[in-house]
Specification:
297 residues; alpha/beta; four-stranded parallel β-sheet; 37% helix; elongated
Length: 297
Protein backbone atom coordinates (compact mmCIF):
# COMPACT_ATOMS: atom_id res chain seq x y z
CA UNK A 1 0.00 0.00 0.00
CA UNK A 2 1.29 3.49 -0.74
CA UNK A 3 2.85 5.12 2.30
CA UNK A 4 0.79 8.28 2.00
CA UNK A 5 -2.57 6.72 1.21
CA UNK A 6 -5.35 7.75 3.62
CA UNK A 7 -6.45 4.14 3.89
CA UNK A 8 -2.86 3.06 4.61
CA UNK A 9 -2.69 5.41 7.58
CA UNK A 10 -6.07 4.23 8.80
CA UNK A 11 -5.12 0.56 8.58
CA UNK A 12 -1.80 1.23 10.31
CA UNK A 13 -3.90 2.32 13.29
CA UNK A 14 -6.13 -0.71 13.14
CA UNK A 15 -3.53 -3.38 13.64
CA UNK A 16 -1.64 -1.65 16.47
CA UNK A 17 -2.26 -3.30 19.79
CA UNK A 18 -4.08 -6.33 18.43
CA UNK A 19 -6.21 -8.61 20.58
CA UNK A 20 -5.55 -12.27 21.27
CA UNK A 21 -9.10 -13.53 21.64
CA UNK A 22 -12.40 -13.12 19.86
CA UNK A 23 -14.59 -10.59 21.70
CA UNK A 24 -18.06 -11.41 22.91
CA UNK A 25 -21.02 -10.55 20.68
CA UNK A 26 -21.54 -6.82 20.96
CA UNK A 27 -25.26 -7.20 21.68
CA UNK A 28 -24.31 -8.90 24.97
CA UNK A 29 -21.76 -6.28 26.02
CA UNK A 30 -22.68 -3.51 28.46
CA UNK A 31 -22.43 0.00 27.12
CA UNK A 32 -20.22 2.01 29.44
CA UNK A 33 -18.34 5.30 28.97
CA UNK A 34 -14.56 4.74 28.84
CA UNK A 35 -13.33 8.29 29.37
CA UNK A 36 -14.72 11.35 31.09
CA UNK A 37 -16.22 14.08 28.92
CA UNK A 38 -18.07 17.38 29.40
CA UNK A 39 -21.71 17.11 30.44
CA UNK A 40 -22.76 18.38 27.02
CA UNK A 41 -20.36 19.34 24.26
CA UNK A 42 -21.49 21.86 21.66
CA UNK A 43 -18.26 22.64 19.75
CA UNK A 44 -16.48 19.44 18.77
CA UNK A 45 -13.31 18.66 16.86
CA UNK A 46 -13.06 15.09 15.54
CA UNK A 47 -9.65 13.68 14.63
CA UNK A 48 -10.88 10.29 13.45
CA UNK A 49 -13.24 9.47 10.54
CA UNK A 50 -15.13 6.77 12.44
CA UNK A 51 -15.80 9.18 15.32
CA UNK A 52 -16.92 11.90 12.88
CA UNK A 53 -19.35 9.39 11.39
CA UNK A 54 -20.58 8.31 14.82
CA UNK A 55 -21.30 11.90 15.82
CA UNK A 56 -23.20 12.52 12.60
CA UNK A 57 -25.14 9.27 12.93
CA UNK A 58 -26.28 10.64 16.30
CA UNK A 59 -27.68 13.70 14.47
CA UNK A 60 -25.03 16.01 15.87
CA UNK A 61 -23.07 16.93 12.73
CA UNK A 62 -23.94 20.55 13.42
CA UNK A 63 -21.72 20.49 16.52
CA UNK A 64 -18.56 19.79 14.52
CA UNK A 65 -16.29 22.81 14.16
CA UNK A 66 -13.26 21.02 12.62
CA UNK A 67 -12.29 17.53 11.44
CA UNK A 68 -9.25 15.51 10.41
CA UNK A 69 -8.21 15.43 6.77
CA UNK A 70 -9.66 11.98 6.10
CA UNK A 71 -13.21 12.42 7.38
CA UNK A 72 -15.44 12.41 4.30
CA UNK A 73 -18.86 11.15 5.39
CA UNK A 74 -21.52 12.40 5.38
CA UNK A 75 -21.16 14.99 2.62
CA UNK A 76 -22.19 17.78 5.01
CA UNK A 77 -18.78 17.60 6.77
CA UNK A 78 -16.83 18.38 3.61
CA UNK A 79 -16.75 22.20 4.04
CA UNK A 80 -15.47 22.01 7.64
CA UNK A 81 -11.94 23.18 8.49
CA UNK A 82 -9.32 20.41 8.37
CA UNK A 83 -6.79 20.17 11.19
CA UNK A 84 -4.47 17.38 10.06
CA UNK A 85 -4.29 13.72 10.89
CA UNK A 86 -2.86 11.20 13.32
CA UNK A 87 0.78 12.19 12.90
CA UNK A 88 0.43 15.89 12.13
CA UNK A 89 -2.64 17.33 13.84
CA UNK A 90 -2.32 21.11 13.92
CA UNK A 91 -2.69 22.18 17.54
CA UNK A 92 -2.97 25.88 16.67
CA UNK A 93 -5.85 25.26 14.28
CA UNK A 94 -7.56 23.02 16.83
CA UNK A 95 -7.30 25.78 19.44
CA UNK A 96 -8.57 28.34 16.92
CA UNK A 97 -11.76 26.27 16.53
CA UNK A 98 -12.47 26.85 20.26
CA UNK A 99 -13.75 23.30 20.91
CA UNK A 100 -15.23 22.20 24.19
CA UNK A 101 -14.46 18.58 23.20
CA UNK A 102 -11.89 16.85 21.00
CA UNK A 103 -12.59 13.29 19.84
CA UNK A 104 -9.62 11.14 18.89
CA UNK A 105 -8.18 7.65 19.01
CA UNK A 106 -5.44 6.42 21.37
CA UNK A 107 -1.85 7.00 20.28
CA UNK A 108 -2.69 10.34 18.72
CA UNK A 109 0.45 12.34 19.35
CA UNK A 110 -1.39 15.56 20.25
CA UNK A 111 -3.68 14.11 22.94
CA UNK A 112 -1.44 14.91 25.92
CA UNK A 113 -0.59 18.39 24.65
CA UNK A 114 -4.27 19.24 24.15
CA UNK A 115 -4.98 18.16 27.72
CA UNK A 116 -2.09 20.28 28.99
CA UNK A 117 -3.66 23.24 27.19
CA UNK A 118 -6.90 22.68 29.07
CA UNK A 119 -9.02 21.10 26.35
CA UNK A 120 -11.45 18.29 27.07
CA UNK A 121 -10.21 15.23 25.20
CA UNK A 122 -12.20 12.03 24.72
CA UNK A 123 -10.06 9.10 23.62
CA UNK A 124 -11.94 6.20 22.05
CA UNK A 125 -10.70 3.05 20.36
CA UNK A 126 -12.62 0.30 18.56
CA UNK A 127 -11.32 -3.14 17.66
CA UNK A 128 -14.61 -5.00 18.07
CA UNK A 129 -18.35 -4.55 17.68
CA UNK A 130 -18.58 -4.30 21.46
CA UNK A 131 -16.11 -1.39 21.42
CA UNK A 132 -18.16 0.32 18.73
CA UNK A 133 -21.32 -0.05 20.77
CA UNK A 134 -19.60 1.48 23.81
CA UNK A 135 -18.22 4.33 21.71
CA UNK A 136 -21.64 5.18 20.32
CA UNK A 137 -23.09 5.56 23.79
CA UNK A 138 -20.04 7.38 25.12
CA UNK A 139 -20.31 9.99 22.36
CA UNK A 140 -24.06 10.21 22.91
CA UNK A 141 -23.49 10.97 26.58
CA UNK A 142 -20.85 13.55 25.69
CA UNK A 143 -23.42 15.49 23.64
CA UNK A 144 -26.07 15.22 26.35
CA UNK A 145 -28.15 12.50 24.71
CA UNK A 146 -27.79 9.45 26.94
CA UNK A 147 -29.36 6.37 25.44
CA UNK A 148 -29.06 7.61 21.86
CA UNK A 149 -25.91 5.56 21.34
CA UNK A 150 -27.62 2.40 22.52
CA UNK A 151 -30.49 3.11 20.15
CA UNK A 152 -28.05 3.67 17.27
CA UNK A 153 -26.32 0.37 18.00
CA UNK A 154 -29.66 -1.45 18.20
CA UNK A 155 -30.57 -0.20 14.71
CA UNK A 156 -27.15 -1.14 13.35
CA UNK A 157 -27.29 -4.57 14.95
CA UNK A 158 -30.76 -5.23 13.54
CA UNK A 159 -29.61 -4.30 10.04
CA UNK A 160 -26.70 -6.75 10.33
CA UNK A 161 -29.10 -9.51 11.32
CA UNK A 162 -31.33 -8.70 8.35
CA UNK A 163 -28.37 -8.73 5.96
CA UNK A 164 -27.33 -12.18 7.13
CA UNK A 165 -30.56 -13.50 5.65
CA UNK A 166 -29.35 -12.35 2.23
CA UNK A 167 -26.24 -14.56 2.22
CA UNK A 168 -26.65 -17.09 -0.60
CA UNK A 169 -26.82 -20.63 0.85
CA UNK A 170 -23.83 -21.81 -1.20
CA UNK A 171 -21.67 -19.18 0.50
CA UNK A 172 -22.61 -20.27 4.03
CA UNK A 173 -19.46 -21.18 5.97
CA UNK A 174 -17.09 -20.37 3.10
CA UNK A 175 -13.57 -19.40 4.16
CA UNK A 176 -12.46 -15.80 3.56
CA UNK A 177 -9.13 -14.01 3.65
CA UNK A 178 -9.54 -10.24 4.12
CA UNK A 179 -6.37 -8.38 3.27
CA UNK A 180 -5.20 -4.99 4.54
CA UNK A 181 -2.17 -2.75 4.24
CA UNK A 182 -1.06 -3.87 0.81
CA UNK A 183 -0.93 -7.55 1.66
CA UNK A 184 1.14 -7.56 4.86
CA UNK A 185 -1.79 -7.44 7.29
CA UNK A 186 -5.02 -9.42 7.56
CA UNK A 187 -8.29 -8.85 9.38
CA UNK A 188 -8.61 -11.81 11.73
CA UNK A 189 -11.54 -13.32 13.57
CA UNK A 190 -10.83 -11.08 16.56
CA UNK A 191 -11.29 -7.84 14.58
CA UNK A 192 -14.51 -5.94 13.96
CA UNK A 193 -14.12 -6.87 10.28
CA UNK A 194 -13.86 -10.52 11.26
CA UNK A 195 -16.98 -10.17 13.39
CA UNK A 196 -18.88 -8.71 10.45
CA UNK A 197 -17.83 -11.64 8.27
CA UNK A 198 -19.00 -14.05 10.96
CA UNK A 199 -22.32 -12.23 11.39
CA UNK A 200 -22.97 -12.79 7.69
CA UNK A 201 -22.26 -16.52 8.02
CA UNK A 202 -18.75 -16.59 6.55
CA UNK A 203 -15.60 -18.05 8.12
CA UNK A 204 -12.26 -16.33 8.52
CA UNK A 205 -9.06 -18.21 7.68
CA UNK A 206 -7.14 -16.08 10.21
CA UNK A 207 -7.92 -17.42 13.72
CA UNK A 208 -8.42 -15.22 16.76
CA UNK A 209 -5.26 -16.67 18.29
CA UNK A 210 -3.18 -14.63 15.81
CA UNK A 211 -4.74 -11.34 16.96
CA UNK A 212 -7.15 -8.86 15.46
CA UNK A 213 -4.90 -7.54 12.67
CA UNK A 214 -1.84 -9.80 12.40
CA UNK A 215 1.03 -9.23 10.00
CA UNK A 216 1.09 -12.17 7.60
CA UNK A 217 3.05 -13.04 4.49
CA UNK A 218 1.80 -14.41 1.16
CA UNK A 219 2.82 -17.92 2.16
CA UNK A 220 0.16 -17.90 4.88
CA UNK A 221 -2.55 -17.45 2.27
CA UNK A 222 -1.10 -20.26 0.18
CA UNK A 223 -1.32 -22.62 3.14
CA UNK A 224 -4.82 -21.44 4.12
CA UNK A 225 -6.18 -21.76 0.55
CA UNK A 226 -9.30 -19.60 1.20
CA UNK A 227 -12.50 -19.80 -0.85
CA UNK A 228 -12.53 -16.00 -1.30
CA UNK A 229 -9.99 -13.19 -1.28
CA UNK A 230 -11.03 -9.61 -0.43
CA UNK A 231 -8.30 -7.01 -1.02
CA UNK A 232 -7.89 -3.26 -1.41
CA UNK A 233 -7.77 -2.29 -5.09
CA UNK A 234 -4.90 0.19 -5.05
CA UNK A 235 -4.00 2.19 -8.16
CA UNK A 236 -1.13 0.52 -9.97
CA UNK A 237 -1.26 -2.68 -7.89
CA UNK A 238 -0.19 -5.78 -9.85
CA UNK A 239 -2.70 -8.59 -10.45
CA UNK A 240 -3.07 -11.09 -7.64
CA UNK A 241 -1.69 -13.94 -9.70
CA UNK A 242 1.60 -12.00 -9.96
CA UNK A 243 2.29 -12.52 -6.27
CA UNK A 244 4.69 -15.36 -5.45
CA UNK A 245 2.80 -18.63 -5.70
CA UNK A 246 -0.65 -17.06 -5.81
CA UNK A 247 -1.30 -18.24 -9.34
CA UNK A 248 -1.82 -21.67 -7.75
CA UNK A 249 -4.57 -20.49 -5.39
CA UNK A 250 -7.97 -21.91 -6.31
CA UNK A 251 -9.63 -18.60 -5.48
CA UNK A 252 -7.35 -16.78 -7.91
CA UNK A 253 -7.62 -19.38 -10.69
CA UNK A 254 -11.41 -19.51 -10.42
CA UNK A 255 -11.98 -15.76 -10.06
CA UNK A 256 -13.17 -15.80 -6.46
CA UNK A 257 -11.51 -12.51 -5.60
CA UNK A 258 -12.80 -8.99 -4.90
CA UNK A 259 -10.56 -5.96 -5.37
CA UNK A 260 -12.46 -3.12 -3.72
CA UNK A 261 -11.44 0.49 -4.47
CA UNK A 262 -11.67 3.54 -2.26
CA UNK A 263 -13.94 4.99 -0.98
CA UNK A 264 -15.82 1.70 -0.70
CA UNK A 265 -12.85 0.04 0.96
CA UNK A 266 -12.82 2.82 3.59
CA UNK A 267 -16.34 1.80 4.61
CA UNK A 268 -15.10 -1.74 5.26
CA UNK A 269 -12.19 -0.72 7.48
CA UNK A 270 -13.77 2.08 9.54
CA UNK A 271 -15.13 0.95 12.93
CA UNK A 272 -18.15 3.24 12.87
CA UNK A 273 -21.91 3.29 12.39
CA UNK A 274 -21.80 2.18 8.73
CA UNK A 275 -21.32 -1.48 9.59
CA UNK A 276 -24.39 -2.35 7.56
CA UNK A 277 -22.85 -0.68 4.49
CA UNK A 278 -19.69 -2.73 5.05
CA UNK A 279 -21.79 -5.90 5.20
CA UNK A 280 -23.62 -4.86 2.02
CA UNK A 281 -20.26 -4.36 0.31
CA UNK A 282 -19.23 -7.90 1.24
CA UNK A 283 -22.52 -9.27 -0.11
CA UNK A 284 -21.99 -7.28 -3.31
CA UNK A 285 -18.54 -8.86 -3.60
CA UNK A 286 -20.07 -12.34 -3.37
CA UNK A 287 -22.70 -11.44 -5.98
CA UNK A 288 -19.99 -10.22 -8.36
CA UNK A 289 -18.06 -13.47 -7.95
CA UNK A 290 -21.23 -15.46 -8.69
CA UNK A 291 -21.93 -13.40 -11.81
CA UNK A 292 -18.43 -14.05 -13.12
CA UNK A 293 -18.80 -17.76 -12.44
CA UNK A 294 -22.09 -17.88 -14.33
CA UNK A 295 -20.60 -15.98 -17.29
CA UNK A 296 -17.70 -18.40 -17.47
CA UNK A 297 -19.94 -21.44 -17.82
Amino acid sequence: MLAHSPTALLIALLFQGTQAALPARAADAPARPSTAAPAQAWRIVSLQPSLTETLCALDACDRLVAIDRYSDWPASVQPLPRVGGLADADIERILAARPDLVLLRPRNRVADRLKELGLNVLTLDAKSHADMRRNMETVAQAIGRPGAGEALWARTDARLDALRQRLPPHWQGKRVYFELHGGTVAAGEASFIGETLARLGLRNVVPASLGAFPKLGPEYVLRADPDLLIVHDMPGAPPLDARPGWHALRAVREGRTCRIPEPRFDVLVRPGPRLDEAAQEILACLAAVDRRAMAAR
